[in-house]
Amino acid sequence: MSDPQDPRVAVYLDFDNIVISWYDRVHGRNAYGKDRQRITENPNDPDVIERLRGAMIEVGAIIDYAASFGTLVLTRAYADWSSHVNAEYRSQLVARAVDLVQLFPAAAYAKNGADIRLAVDAVEDMFRLPDLTHVVIVAGDSDYVPLAQRCKRLGRYVIGVGVAGSTAKSLAAACDEFESYDSLPGVVRPVPKQAAPPAEPVTPQVTEPVASRKTADAEPAAPRATPDAAPEAPATKPKAASKGRTKKATKPAEPAAPAEETEPTPTTEQEEATLLLERALRLGHDKAGADEWLHSSAVKTHMRRMDPSFSEKALGYRSFSDFLKSRDDITELEETGHERVVRLREGA
Predict the structure, then answer these.
(1) In 3D, which of 75, 94, 72, 60 has the Cα closest to residue 276?
(2) How many helices (H) and strands (E) in the chain?
(3) Hey, which bits of 129-271 come out as E strands?
(4) Percent of the chain, pLDDT > 70?
(5) Which DSSP category does 157 fall into?
(6) What letter does residue 71 receive in the DSSP assignment?
C-alpha cells in the first residue's frame, strides 16, 4: 500500500498540440500548417520523413519531469492515433505506460476536441481519485486556463508544460508552476538558423559586373583573331561552369546528418543507468538549486520513479553509494556518518 504522504501525480497530454508546436519551433512559424497536406498525402516522402524526425518529441523527458513531483497515478495522451504523425509515437508511449485516448476529427483538418475531452476526464478523475495531489497539463492552448483554475480550486498543485513561443501567457499564469518543454533534461534544443543567405547575394553583385566587363572587352578582340573559334570557347565555358555548380549544390545536400541523432542513444544498461542518474540530478538541482547537495536516497527514489526497473544490484553494485562512486566523472559524493549527499559535478 502506498504512503498517504507520497505525492500522487496525474498527467494529461494534448499530444497534437505539443507535436505541432514543436514542429513549428524547429522548422519555423506555421511550418506544420504549410506541410500538413504534404505529410497527409505523402507520408513516405524522404523529405517529409526527415522533417518529422527533426521535430520528434522526447516523450521520456516529459514523463521523467512529471515523475519528479511524485508517483504517477495515471498518464493519458489525447490524439488521433490513426494519423501518421502521431502513430510514430505509439511504441514510445506504450513503453512508458501511457494510456492512448483515440480522438477522431469530425471533418478534414477539423479540431479533434482534445481540450474538451481532456478537461472532462481531468475533473472526473479529481472527484474519483481524491488522493491526487498534482496535475500536469502538457499543452499550450489558452483553452486550458479554466481547467487549471478549477484544479487549483479543488486543492491540486497544477504544473504546466508547453513549447516556448507557442504557449499562451494566460495558461502559464493559471498554473502553480510552468516549465518550458525546451528546457527539460534530455530535450535537444533546435539550432537557430544562421543568416548565411544574405552574404550570397552580395558576392554576385560584385563579381557579375567585373565578369561582364572582361567578356565585353574580350568579345571585340576575339572576332579579329579567329572569328570561328571565338564563339566556340565561350559556349563551352558556361556549360562546364554550370556542371560544376550543380555538383557543388548536390554534394552538401547528401550528408543529411540524421545519423548523428542516433549515435547518443544508449547501447548498454550501464549507459542507460548513467543517463538516468544525470537526468535525476538535473531535475533535482532545478528544484533545490544548481549548487545544492541532494540526498542520495531522494535521488534513487526519483530514478525509480522515472524507471521502475532500475536496480543498482542488477548492474553489479552492492549499494547505491557504490553506483554513485562508479560515476564520479559526473557526480560528487560526500558521506558524513549515515548521511550521504550527492550533486552533479561542474561541467558534466
Answers:
(1) 60
(2) 15, 9
(3) 134-138, 157-162, 177-180
(4) 75
(5) E
(6) E
